[in-house]
Amino acid sequence: MPVLEDDGQVLTQSMAIIEYLDETHPQPPLLPGSPAERARVRAIAQAIACDIHPINNLRVLQYLQRELGANEAQKNAWYRHWVTTGLAAVESMLAGDPRTGAFCHGDMPTLADCCLVPQVFNARRFDCGMDAFPTVLRIAARCEALEAFRKAAPANQPDAE
Known about the structure:
With about 160 residues, this protein is mainly alpha-helical. It is built from seven helices and two strands.
């Protein structure tokens, strides 16, 4: 579980942490100005954080193996199925929508990009086929080129193995 310790407070859950950071460090903002634009960004973020990630987190994958007896190949097939299904939905939300720019929404990173990049990292880690998601890959590459995203990469965290 992601944890942020800030000024003596311990915060958990990715979406809560991201929104806390946006509220305490509002420049640049991670949510656009209008309610409709914020709703779109949140919808993309939640498609990732609520639809893809929960069924593919370590706790679920371990349950598949320990309690249901899934072997490594079956566990990985489960992961690939659900991440591919979820990223297909995200791709359809992004591709061809004029509000999609260099990033998920417009030309500045948003809350949605903060959710997208780790999911793409995990999909690559599990060797998911990504060719069907050119918009997702283009946006992830754009994010990964930014210093803030490079600093946030899993390999750059204090608890990285």
